[in-house]
Amino acid sequence: MELIEPVDVERVRPPHGVEPAMFALMLATFTIGTGEFAMMGLLPEFSHSLGISISRASSVISAYALGVVVGAPLIAVAGAKLPRRTLLLAMLVLFLVGNTGTILMPNLLDIEVMRFITGLPHGAFFGVAALVGASMVERARRGRTVGRVLSGIMFSTVVGSPLSTYAANHLGWRAAYAAISLLGLLCFLAIWYFAPRDKPHPNANALAELGAFKRPQVLLTLLTSAIGFGGLFAIYTFLTTALSDVTHLPDWAVALYQIVWGLGMLAGNAFGGAMADRNINRTILASFAASCVFMLAFWLLLPLPVAMLPITFLIPATLIGISPAIQSHLMEVAGDAQTLAASLNNSAFNIANAAGTWLGAFLISSGLGLASIGWGSALLSAGGFLVYLITMAQARLSASR
């Protein structure tokens, strides 16, 4: 979900034209995004099939997020010298291994391991895919091109996740992940055939990118993401269950509300990007504040189907609207560590995923009810707001020295 402004990207023409290559990259980001978000909608069926509670089953989401946190910086550094097409294909193989293992494993612990493996290539894949997309066009079009490549993530919430939930309800969660694996195989073939054949990068200095860890503004911005986005995942992880058990919506209506959630993400990304061009700091602070209001509304109004429709749109719209501003700020403060900073932003985003999922499971297992994830999520957004105030204060202090 992060937009990267590629720096010094060598121009490489794809063998069969830009548009087929662009579609292959978008299909891949859509497929990987669906693989991540699908489990959140499948939790009721998944937990039922294994005979465990919803809160216990949510550990597979945390395992995937942990894989992203670990894999994103490691792959970004280890694969810096490889041709980007080769690196994309290798990461898709890892994605396929993890997804296929998810289907085949019989118990929760083994499935957790497979979800961890599936998450390893997640963050680095988006960063490398953005760079490959940028390499196919002239510099003046790179920003829009990167946006197109990564738009697959947003569409995965609008189309991929609801379809996966529908398939799970009628065919079982393993069938849903089998379809994702088949789609992943199609992505592998499409990128192998259509992606530009770039050369290795023997002069790449992977360790130089680790300088990002020395920059306070980078670390504080990543901490803002890691805390502030947690509420998004806390609510989305248990949204299907909450809408079914508390709002009492039928399966078809739950799928509709999931689509509304995805539309909120699309709208928030577009609006947030436009607002970030005007003022990054105000966009981040205003969005966190607004998300607190709508999360508290979730807590109070969850039993009311009519009220929940706009809330289901507005929560992701306000929080995802922060993402372009966060990435824009990282671009300003990361210096020559752009690629690693992008991967680390994915890591921070998935730390938020793990933390938000854990918090939601804790609140539910403590007997506070599904509605309690609303006020719990609001606390996380408030935490992101406060950390970003500290980020701004540190920037002013550094500028005054």
Question: Could you give a quick summary of the protein structure above?
Answer:
This protein is mostly helical and 401 residues long. The protein contains 17 helices and no strands. The longest helix is centred in the N-terminal third of the chain and has 33 residues.
Can you give keywords for this protein?
MFS, 80% helix, Permease of the major facilitator superfamily protein, 401 residues, disordered N terminus, transmembrane
Protein architecture, described:
80% of the residues lie in helices and 0% in strands. With 401 residues, it is mainly α. Helix 3 runs parallel beside helix 5, helix 3 (59-78) crosses helix 6 and helix 13 runs antiparallel to helix 14. It starts with 17 loop residues before the first helix and ends with a helix. It is found in: Cell membrane. It is a multi-pass membrane protein. Keywords: Cell membrane, Membrane, Transmembrane, Transmembrane helix. Residues 21-396 form the Major facilitator superfamily (MFS) profile domain.
β-sheet strand percentage: under 5%
Uncertain spans, ≥5 residues at pLDDT below 50?
1-9
Radius of gyration, rounded? 20 Å
Distance between the termini: 34 Å
- Helix share, percent: over 70%
Overall geometric form: globular
Mean pLDDT: 84
Q: How many beta-strand elements?
A: 0
Major sheet, described briefly? Answer: none
User: How many H/I helical runs?
Assistant: 17
Derived from helix and strand composition plus strand pairing, the structural class reads: mainly alpha
H/E element order? HHHHHHHHHHHHHHHHH
